[in-house]
Specification:
The chain has about 325 residues and is an alpha+beta fold. It is about 40% helix and about 20% strand.
Length: about 325
């Protein structure tokens, strides 16, 4: 006799009030349940149920036996589930590509905690700036900032990271704090060049009020531009100019006052969207799934911390982003 299965059938019958209820719960035949419960009674030398036309009722011996067995069976099931989960721990190597600035400042600080949770999962990080990047083909998952056509990738949208306008206290003391967006035209603004080579020199702002929404856009310029945001951040921290930065992606310098945001009553428009991309055939891979969930939780956590305003949509690509011009500001003369 399979004593464990017999005890399972016995407890199911006690809970359901009949052998047929136990059979339905366990997914077996009535005969199988009746046979094992009967064998259990024979083995114990005790009657476990009183049977009548209304069903089953536990005897005194049956009630005592059920009270003893139920927690033991629950402990056994818990132990088995723990073992199954341990065997299902993600293993192997996951190749992750992403926007370098974003990965470095938003995700790398949280990776040791992720590794402590999933010690058998190896991560291979690659710098990837767009879906057409040669290194993207080697990646299992991408975390990208920007407007991209997903193509044959699955896209999972993440919380947007609104941006602020910031510089060091020394810079603002030397050059003055702008009160309106248009005043930035007279400042040294550090401009980012996107992965397709377009210089983002058109900074747009929005402000709501009793008279309706006000939009201001200013063409900015400065002595330095770069396609790597870390270059711009480092120069800004050395009092070298003004930059757009997402507090959620680089919380340290803003939190400790090394960078001071201005124009806080204005929302910086056109923050690039953030999304995960992965191949359809990998969507059920455990190691990919746990890392994707980690990235999503991290973004939600960072989004809760920031007071920056703004939202982005993957399909809401700004007009200046279209076309082949090398400057976003060219849109003003061609619209």
């Amino acid at each position: 006799m399979d004593r464990l299965k017999a005890i399972q059938y016995f407890l199911a019958a006690a809970q359901g009030g009949s052998l047929s209820a136990a059979a339905r719960q366990q997914g077996v035949t009535l005969q199988a349940v009746a046979k094992l419960v009967g064998a259990l009674e024979t083995q114990l030398g005790a009657k476990l149920f009183d049977r009548d036309s209304r069903g089953l009722k536990l005897t005194a011996d049956g009630a005592q036996y059920a009270q003893t067995c139920a927690p033991l069976l629950a402990q056994l099931e818990t132990a088995e589930e723990g073992l199954r989960q341990a065997r299902q721990r993600p293993q192997g190597t996951l190749v992750v590509g992403g926007t370098p600035f974003l990965v470095q400042h938003a995700f790398v600080p949280a990776l040791p905690a992720f590794h402590a949770t999933y010690p058998d999962l190896m991560l291979d990080l690659r710098a990837v700036v767009h879906l057409d990047h040669p290194a993207a083909r080697e990646c299992d998952l991408l975390v990208l900032h920007g407007w991209f056509e997903a193509g044959d990738w699955v896209r999972r949208e993440l919380p947007a990271m609104p941006q602020v306008t910031a510089a060091t206290p020394a810079y603002w003391k030397r050059h003055g704090v702008p009160r309106q967006p248009g005043e930035l035209a007279a400042h040294q603004c550090l401009c980012y060049r996107n992965p397709y080579g377009k210089l983002l020199d058109l900074w747009r702002y929005r402000q709501g009020g009793p008279q309706g929404e006000v939009v201001e856009q200013v063409v900015v310029s400065g002595w330095l531009s770069s396609n790597h945001r870390d270059h711009l951040l480092e120069v800004a921290l050395q009092d070298g100019g003004v930059l757009r930065v997402a507090p959620a992606a680089e919380p340290g310098a803003l939190a400790d006052g090394r960078l001071v945001p201005v124009l806080s009553d204005w929302e910086m428009m056109d923050p690039p969207p953030l999304a995960l991309y992965y191949r359809p055939e990998h969507r059920r891979t455990l190691r990919l799934r746990v890392f994707a969930d980690f990235v999503a939780r991290r973004c939600e956590e960072l989004a809760r911390r920031t007071l920056a305003k703004g939202h982005a949509s993957l399909d809401g690509r700004p007009a200046w982003h279209r076309g082949n011009s090398l400057r976003a500001s060219s849109w003003l003369t061609h619209r």
